[in-house]
Specification:
heterotrimer, A alpha+beta, B mainly alpha, C mainly alpha, A: alpha+beta, Jelly Rolls, Helix Hairpins, Immunoglobulin-like, 3 domains, 6-stranded mixed beta sheet, 6 helices, 24 strands, about 20% helix, B: mainly alpha, particulate methane monooxygenase, chain B, two-stranded antiparallel ribbon, about 5% strand
Amino acid sequence: MGARFKRIATAVLAVLFVLRFATEALAHGERAQEPSLRLSTIQWYDTRWSTDHVAVNGELTVSGRFHIMANWPLEIPSPAGLTFLNVGVPGPVFIRTATSINGVNGVSSMSLALGQDYEYRIVLKGRVPGRYHVHPMLDVRDTGPILGPGKWVSIEGDPAAFSDPVVTLTGQHLDLSHYGLGAIVGWHVVWIAVALLWLGYWLRKPLLMPRYEAVQAGEGDRLITRADRIAAAVLLAITVIVAVGETAYTNMAFPVTVPLQSNQTMVPGLDLPPARVTLKAEQVRYLVPGRTVQFRLRVTNQGSKPIRFGEFTTANLRFLNNAVVAPEPDYPSELIAPAGLVVQPDEPISPGETREVYIEATSTVWETDRLTALMSDPTNRIGGLFIFYTTDRERSLVEFSSAIVPAFAEQARSSG
Amino acid sequence: MTAAPRARSQPAISSPEELARAYRWFDLVVAALLFFLFMALYHVITILTVGDWDFWSDWKDSRWWLSFTPIVQIAMPSAITYIFWSKFRLPFAATFLTLCLVSAEWINRIANMHGWAYFPLNFVWPATLIPCGLALDTTLVLTDSFLFTAIIGGMLWAVLFYLANWPLITHFLLPVNANGVLMSLADLQGFHYIRTGTPEYIRIINRGTLRTFGQDPIYLSIAFAGFMSMVVYMLFLGLGWIFTRSQFSWLKRL
Amino acid sequence: MATALNRARVGAASQAPPLATHSDESHWISPTLIIVGCAIVGVLMIGARLYQQAYAWTAGLDATSPEFQTYWMNLLFGQFAVEALAAAGIWGYVWFSRPRDLGRLETREELRRFGVFVALVFCYVFAVYWAGSFFGEEDASWHQTVVRDTSFTPSHIILFYWAFPVYIILGITAYLYAMTRLPRFAARHSLPWIIGVAGPFMLLPVVGLNEWAHSFWILEERFSAPVHWGFMIFAWSGLGLGGLLLQACDYLHELTTGEAQTYVVEGGETVIDPALDFEREAG
């Protein structure tokens, strides 16, 4: 019977082990967020993942930039409150070893400014084998998480080989993945044993009915005997002595400690040169049947070189003008619209010129990512970044924000 | 002595030995039932009040965790102690509850926090309230007084929470240089072991004020917790009293 | 007013009876019923947990994905169907098979039925443990780890829409059983028992408040948020089982000794258990 039970238990544990460590996780969570907020809050760009295959204990770096919309939705708290650079992964399948925003250590929560750009870096270490969608993300206090683009990354190897070595300022070398567990379990076992002593003392005697009947008869006072009081005194003494001893021993073993640390700091934005382009929206609408956002814009080139529309990006979608710019080879293809960015007219805009431009951004991802749920959203706004390029590949990023109106049938482009 | 009035023409049990065995069986079934009931009730209350501090080592600070936990957690032992002491003279409710709580928490941390969400157990270990419960129960036996149990036991409840649990978190308060920032090991655990839904700023921990008298507020937290534990103990005895009155509450069928 | 039987039994560990001897009345609470009932609950809960292990991370992170519909929304609808059928079937059986002998019940039979009732309460409490404790805290390990998606997450689908209904069904089953099989519970409603069943039942409607709040302003995943205190109030109602225990002790005394339970109240007056009067009403 014992051997059979062991075999069954081993089989169950083996199944659980396989289920636990052979996971494949999909994109998650962000599609449930309101479209107008995802389109108009933070625009992530230049996102790079250093690899898409990592060994257990191997390193993955996610880096890039994000722009905080100056025209942040007023109905939700802004990053000027407090933010935290986080990672969108299904739990600690990676560990996070280092992060930074504009060079400031990301262990801190940070206050960031509207209208500014920030450069971030996240270093991860593989821990649990599986295939995961890895996103940079920014938590904004009282607003929630705002996820950046995600890419599939696989972790391969033996999960038991994972280690998290740390050296303390007092010179101790330890593995943070299991350090201290022995002491914690040990002390818990001690206290559980003492509790069982006390409970066992009472359970060995008739517990309920005889005592209940005595109390109902008015004879409850004689139920607590001298032996009971001695036992109580002994248990109380043991409890106090063990607890005091536990504290004294630990204080001797760890003379140098610090309280929990929490740094909250303001981080100024990147000192980027101002974009020498202005955009004014004449009309923006979403053509439902064609899954197309149609822009009519008035563009003014205030720089000294001709510029062309290179890209429109919003809510992690990228619409590239294929005549101007190509996607990075390892960028997640599902985030790049196949139809690209259609710009009419697409000729370069000369310095000082103001031109009316018609732009189409078509993708099924508007629908599959629930961005077209704008129609059931109480706020219908669209935001994003237009990226312009000069012939020298100099880049200008221009924030764009506008109301958006759905259209249910194709109409003449010149009409309203 | 006048015999009690008859309730039945024939009792269900005819011999004293069989009666003793029947009562004993009732003891064991109720004890097992109380184990699961106390796990359920006390754990639910814990999760929804001090759960966040109990789940993660980087929440276990010297202001909120040390004070809030004892204050909130003494309520249920108080109410249930009233029932078992006033009706059975059984002084085991606080110990039983705290044992059930820590059992339920370990089951969960191992099966779910670790087994499902991959958190290392040294990050999600629970605190223990067992010594606190033992102090309450033994004080009640020694004093036979709810008032003195509230005063002495309530203060012991708070002090013992610190004495039994601060050594556990001390292991994780060793200082570390994390890329140029001072962190404790507990903070580093929170940083390393990613919680997508729990950013750093969400922690309700001691972040210092202009009036923490220049040092860790541990002893202030214990003193405050001790005082409030006494008050909460007395208040929730009243809740226990209400539920013992309900023994006589039978409502007419509509 | 204790009987001679009771005096001899108090406080003496050496007189604790051995458990080896079995008789129908000494094991008047059927161990078989407890074991089988708890085993069924255990299978339902462990099965749900294993399902989460297999499909939560792989198909449960994105409510808009087809995998989520397949593995989780279908499960949710299946759960509703199973629960509706189980509730109708079990409650219907308990109600329609009710005996009509409450006015002329033999004491031994009454004790046996009382034992069945205690066993059902045991199974109910066991199910409450799985819901409130096991899957309750498990919810934290999901929601504090991933981005909250919709109200239907792998943890919520099991916690609110499987574990909660299971204990609700068991609680009402136990309530109906007592109401139809035991004279005093047929004659009157036990207030602590009502609280002990209705209180945990109300956890399910409180879910509505919880999800409403989370979709509007509680955007951080802290368990200590005041919006969760609604759950706490109804968890406190579990103390009603304390009052039921006292009523059970009175009942057990009367069934096993044939004597009325009496209480010495303030002033030295002796009163008789009021529940005895109700039993005559049930016939």
